[in-house]
Every structure is written in structure tokens, then in C-alpha cells.
Amino acid sequence: MNSATVELAEINQSPEIENNHELKYADDAFPQAEDTDIKRSAKNLDTALCRVSEASTREIENLVDEFHHLDKKLQADLSRIQRDIAEYAELSKGVMQLATTISDGMKRLNVAGITR
Q1: Does residue 7 form part of some domain?
Q2: What is the pLDDT of residues 41-63, one digit of tens each?
Q3: Could you tell me if residue 115 is inside a domain?
Q4: Which residues constitute the domain of residue 62?
């Protein structure tokens, strides 16, 4: 072997060069690990956001359904109250007519001279 080949072989076998190669391989592996961790974290975050979003959406849908149910109940109560008011007005009108009839009858009795 010539002296240049021997020196090159010695350099390649020196501990400094081996450590340098290890560092180079370690540096190459580190970004891949970070990239995988970032992707995993992003996927976990996406999954968590989807769950929260689904839960919120379900809650909103339940509230909307409850509001529709309450609206129907209010409409039914409004119709019932309007019927009750109309019946009360009719009953009140009948009572007033009855009171007028009784009053007129009492007046006729007084005019005829029948009193207590």
C-alpha cells in the first residue's frame, strides 16, 4: 500500500471520524422522529377537535330539538288560552244577559206592586 492509502485507512478508522459519522446518522434520524411526532400530535389534535366538535354539534342539535318541542307546547298553550278566553267572554256575556233579565223582572214586579 502506498502512504496515502494507509493514511486514508487510518483516518477512516480513527474514533473522531466514527463519532462524526454517528452524529451525522443521529442528526438524520432526529428530524424524522420529530416529523413523526409532529404528525402524530397533529392527528391526535385533529381527533380531539373532531370529538369536541361532534359533542358540541350533538348538544346544539339537542337544544334545537328541545326549543322546537317547547315552541309546539307554547303554541298549544296559546291556542288553549285563546279558547278559554273566548269561552269566558261568552259565559260572561250570558251572565250579563241573565243579570239584565233578572233586573228587568224585578223592576216589573216593583211596578206591579209586588214587593216584599
Answers
A1: yes
A2: 888 888 888 888 998 999 999 99
A3: no
A4: 3-85
